[in-house]
Task: structure prediction
Amino acid sequence: MDAPLHSVVLDGRSLDARALVAIARFNAPVQLGAAARAQLQATRQYIDHHWLTDDAPLMYAFNTGVGAFKNVRVGADQIAQFQTNLIRAASAGTGEPVPTEVVRAMMALRVNAFASDYSGVRPAIVDRLVAMLNHGITPRIAAQGSVGASGDLAPLAMMAGAMMGLSQSKVDFQGRAMAAADAFMAAGMAATMDVQAKDATALINGTAASLAYAVLTAHDARRLLSDATISLALSLEALRCETSCFDERVMLARPHPGQRAVAASMRRVLDGTQRCSEGARQVRLRSMAGLDDTLAGSPHVPPIPPRIQDAYSLRCAPQVHGPVCDALDYIDRILATEMNSATDNPLIFKDDPSYQVVSGGHFHGQYIAQAMDLLALVITDLSAICDRRSARLVDPACNFDLPAGLVAERAGVNTGLTGVQSMGTALVLENMGLCSPASATSLPAKGNTEDHISNSCVAARRSRTVVRNAQTVVAVEMLLATQALDLAERDLAAFHVGTGTQAAWDAVRVHLPASLGNDRWVFEDIEILRSLVEDGSILRAVEDAVGPLWPQTGLS
Result:
């Protein structure tokens, strides 16, 4: 589970998602690794002593213009002005502000990329970004405007402009928005700083915005899969389902790793259940149509036929949740590589006793774009199967004698929770519209210089929305399933639920009582449960009771 780190050392090689989350969300302090600093200083010393002359070889965006001006030499005495102008010209962003946590992740990713010593920036640039993170000075950045090729130019230019203290730049500091220069002075830092050769190019040329969104979103998606596993268990117990579909022998007959991991997690959460048994299924609930209340809690006479197997949304959960697990493993590998890579252009390589500059294309965000498209797809499908289970819980044709709409009393006067379920369906429909591939959509930009773009920032921002919608859908399933468990408890008290299921049920009820009287203002109920899903509270309660849900992977 997440925990703030005391300090994160950025060295260009070892940053992982857990540490980036600690920086972005928990304000973990940051420092540049000592070895990385020494390498940066050596590289920069060479640049300053050998390349700041008018007879230096042409190097893209160092002593040449950019894009269509790549062959135009920039004189040594104009390089600093060119770098400043580059940041101004690239600040073509629009739209709502980038969330604070994403901006902090962007800055940390840029520092880590520079620490790999392929960018040639001055150490002072890195120190400035580190100080901003440690003082809590967060640039205000417009979310839209990047095509994800030549990197995320617009958002990174706005970050760089704030770092420089440009008069147009705003930051958030100590709970309010202010001019960047004012925040720096309040923090005891220099109000402004300049950019020199290669600084601006390295700052804005890379995929740090796309990657920041992607890492935080993939982290949340991993937790969401755990919560969807828990909501599945709650629904299974509420509907008194068969559990043989999670048998390891069944999984080994088609041994996809994710499918096996999901089934193993379900066995762990459901361990000890008597509710998912034939005996419990034979019990008549007091909400059963036409039942005399005196017979509630007694077995059917004659016995009803065995259930044998359940609907797909229940029985096929390993086959649907499992691909999410496998996809997240793939996505995490992609993002781990991206987090510890140099993504600007050109790159500088040590070639003793000198250095060489080589132009390339690591700024292109296709890896991130395709990974985020995959994430949006699998999380959309995960939200869809959760919603189908929610629909069964409120439908008297499918919920095995639970009351329609999960109404506790006075049906008709009370409507119950059908509106909550419908809201979940609305979010699934929204996700379905959002999961079309952004990475396959390419239009040329900048006078056809950028003739293939990745759309990575759009893919990553959109995937964040998909995950947040899915968090609410999972919260809806938890709300409905726990309501169903409460409504049936009087008749089924002799049949205990699984250890993990009980822990989840209890954790929900600590924050949200069952709706056993009149209809409630359900907006607040949904928000409470969504926040518990988002912050991992229910997952922590379950893992405290049964251990890690994914011991075979070491992930939660």
Notes: The chain has two domains: 8-206, 215-342+356-546. Residues 8-206 form a domain with the Fumarase C; Chain B, domain 1 fold (CATH 1.10.275.10). Residues 456-492 form the longest helix (37 residues). The chain has 20 helices and nine strands.
